[in-house]
């Protein structure tokens, strides 16, 4: 009986070790070329914490957290595991009771492009566009960051019933996603 | 398409649909997006057509975007392809690329479409994260990544590149060694 337990233990350890790990900075191609791998991303640690910016008489607050070993098979039908970042957000008016986090994530899947650039895709309810989003930490100060959004190409085909491809619901932010480009974020907490 | 090619030098997207009867092309009038916006709103597709072409101007992708592909699948699902196997979806870009995609295997395309072309959020993340087809990459890198995604998932679609006068189309695919394979296939 003891031998059977030992065999199960050895097989389990072998299975755990069977998944190859690659650091994101060592990848020579794109993630799709690393099927079966775990993409480890320690650069994501540079972005973690609570970031805050002044906006419309209050504060736009975002909280970035790292999700380790996220299996992306459900999302992409491809057997890849990766560390990713998710970010929730809320708006706080000065002197008002503390608000709760919005139910939708500002960043659902973020990955590092470098030590100071975080990439993600975001859709905007105001314009209906998807954007290539970047959060960039300042070269001079690791506690300051800004956002940049570049619109993804879009084609809309209508017939007499409206758009033939249903519109998706984007994130509702006052002034639209692009308004976040105009403000500077400061990290107020690092956890 | 030469006319559309000249429009890639501007800063808005243009497109038009067409039907072909007895080798005669009948084009719709041009639809256009707004200045500086990488978007094209097409209206009045009320009956099946044989093809649809559009452009990407500077700053846009050198190849089809997630929205382009989702719309291609939308045209198929809505019955707006007069002959789904002969339908051409064409693109001209400011990087000098000229592409056409068509359906080569309907069963595979339906399966691929249900999985990957039904949700623009998923496909956008695939382009940006998984295969990294982006405007800042050169057109060859984007083409390889695009083909890798198509072929490794049995998309049922074929990609063609056109010559500068759009009279000759070449079927492109990815070889096992990762190089791009070209096969001349038709001449207009």
Please provide a written account of the structure:
The complex is a heterodimer of chains A (191) and B (188). Chain A has 191 residues and is mainly beta. Chain A has a single domain, classed as Lipocalin. Chain A is 11% helix and 43% strand. Chain A contains 2 helices and 12 strands; from the N terminus they run αββββαββββββββ. In chain A, strand 10 (154-159) and strand 11 (162-163) form a beta hairpin. The model of chain A has no long low-confidence stretch (mean pLDDT 90). Chain B is 29% helix and 30% strand. In chain B, strands 1, 2, 3, 5, 6, 7, 8, 9 and 10 form a 9-stranded mixed sheet that branches. The radius of gyration of chain B is 16 Å and the shape is globular. Chains A and B meet through strand 6, strand 7 and strand 10 of A and strand 4, strand 5, helix 2, helix 4 and helix 5 of B. Strand 10 of chain A pairs parallel with strand 4 (39-42) of chain B.
Helix content of chain A: 10-25%
Span of the ends, CA to CA of chain B: 12 Å
Number of self-contained structural domains of chain A: 1
Please summarize the sheet with the most strands of chain A.
Answer: 8 strands, antiparallel, barrel
- Total helices of chain A: the number is 2
Counting DSSP E segments of at least 2 residues, the number of strands of chain B comes to 10
Biggest sheet strand line-up of chain A: 3-4-5-6-7-8-9-12
